[in-house]
């Protein structure tokens, strides 16, 4: 699953719970921007999702060059490689 921005709302959690009730998915990978706002948002979303019994893992930004600051900076090849490696 993906989140936009740097905050997760109660409504987004409800939507994810609704989706989970109909489609089985193993985990949610939090993949927010690599800046301070993204780190704060990731921590907040991680806590909120875990409190609602979601399996959550964090995207490992160390896999990417330091010049890549957010998912939109990634090339198609980089994204395909991450998907092949099971990162999301």
Features:
88 residues; 7% strand; globular; 3 helices; two-stranded parallel ribbon; 2 strands; mainly alpha
Structural overview:
With 88 residues, the protein is mainly alpha-helical. It is built from three helices and two strands. It has helices spanning 10-22, 36-51, 76-84; strands at residues 28-30, 56-58. Strands 1-2 form a two-stranded parallel ribbon.
Helix coverage percent? 40-55%
Query: What's the β-strand tally?
Result: 2
Count helical runs.
3
Query: In percent terms, what proportion of residues is strand?
Result: 5-15%
Name the average pLDDT.
89
- Shape category: globular
SSE layout:
Layout: H1 10-22, E1 28-30, H2 36-51, E2 56-58, H3 76-84
Parallel strand pairs: 1-2
In short:
With 88 residues, the protein is mainly alpha-helical. It has three helices and two strands.
């Amino acid at each position: 699953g993906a989140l936009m921005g740097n905050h997760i709302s109660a409504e987004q959690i409800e939507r994810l719970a609704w989706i989970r009730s109909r489609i089985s998915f193993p985990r949610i990978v939090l993949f927010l921007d690599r800046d301070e706002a993204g780190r704060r948002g990731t921590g907040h979303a991680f806590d909120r999702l875990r409190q609602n019994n979601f399996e959550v893992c964090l995207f490992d930004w160390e896999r990417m060059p330091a010049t890549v600051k957010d998912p939109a900076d990634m090339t198609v090849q980089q994204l395909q490689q991450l998907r092949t490696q099971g990162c999301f």
